[in-house]
Design goal:
The longest helix has 23 residues. The protein is mostly helical. The radius of gyration is 20 Å and the shape is globular. 80% of the residues lie in helices and 0% in strands.
Length: 312
Amino acid sequence: MEVFAARDAIEHYQRARDLLAEVARTGASRLAEPSPLELEHLYARPSRAYEMADEREKTRAAYETLLALGRQLGQVEIGEYEEVLEFCLRGTELARKTQNAFLLWLNLDHLGRAYEVVLDLEEALELRGALGPQYEVFSSIRLCAVAVLSDDWEEAYAHAKKVHEDRTSFNVLDIFYLHHVVEALLQGGDERSAREEAHRFAERAESNERERIAYLRSLAVLSEFEGDTGRAIEHLHEARALAGQIGVPGELWQTQSKIGHLHEQHGEEREAQEAFSLAAQTLRELAQKIVDEELRERFLSAPQARRVLEHG
């Protein structure tokens, strides 16, 4: 009976994920929470399955785990990083109680993303590596991102190749890592695969503002690789405008920082300083939302943040 319960939980999580993916389609500020009736429908069947096995505690834990996952998707986007980390730590604790391998993997994966956005890449990498080989196909894209952010290009390329060869995506947010995959493939000398990765998301990016940001950042990576810095900056300016419009500060500061880096390479000091200053301002605004002093300091002292703050 527990096998059927797990299968039902997966099916209903996928439906819940589709509802919550509205944050990816329209921006976090426009996300509406599922109604109580929708939630009851999504979780009634797995709940009954567990209850038949007299495992009501697992039912409640599974329900709370999935609900926490849904909430944190939107919180990551709007920059509530401390709250996201708390959600994910709590969700992982609950997932362990369910003794459901799928839910535990799901929560560890999201906890890794939470550590990633607060720039604690060592914790993120440790969690990604603990997900297990059976979930490697789903984890490779995020392992690639952590490796890129850590400037570990050999590891990044290995994971990017797996992403490209498997062409399997389980998480609606995987496109947000597209530019990392494209850059890792280019660093590994695989220009053809890099272009294929960017191209396969072109149609989706036309109708989805949030996904268009990731696509534009990928085009900027390709333009920089071709030596067309001006075109790369144009793509990044469009991505920055969209990030500001739909309210995704994590994308905003990273895009601003990249614009500054490209201007700096061209000796355009005034434009570079302006971009770095905007990136630093966005970073400080994100840090102000973090109440825990130790977490805030770790965030601001991470190499990726420190480089921006030193320029800005």
